[in-house]
Description:
Layout: H1 4-15, H2 31-60, E1 67-70, E2 75-81, E3 87-93, E4 98-103, E5 107-111
Antiparallel strand pairs: 1-2, 1-5, 2-3, 3-4
Amino acid sequence: MWSTSESYLSILLLAQDDTATSPFGPIGSLLPFVMIAVLFYFMLIRPERKKRAETTSMLENMKKNDRVVTIGGIHGVVVNVQKDSEDVTLRIDDSTNTKMRVLRSAISRIVKDDGEGSQD
């Protein structure tokens, strides 16, 4: 059986700090956090910023007769768009000349006129 003093001694020996000096000094302990921050920036923040810039550019350059798809999946043709307004008027049905007003931010993408049945 171990005595109380022996168990305290073994705990103290186990708890001793076995510090080895890092070749980078105290900055070396921050290196993993810096690497994670850099990785986070290049994998999450930068691509999102690029996508937001592309979307903003697309919405600013939208013009009359562009074929668009809204975030709700509605296909239409731009009838009226003004630079200073948030509203865009879309023609939904050519036969009945049905029109709908949506927010500029509700436009998901502009469809290219490469082919009528082409998939994106």
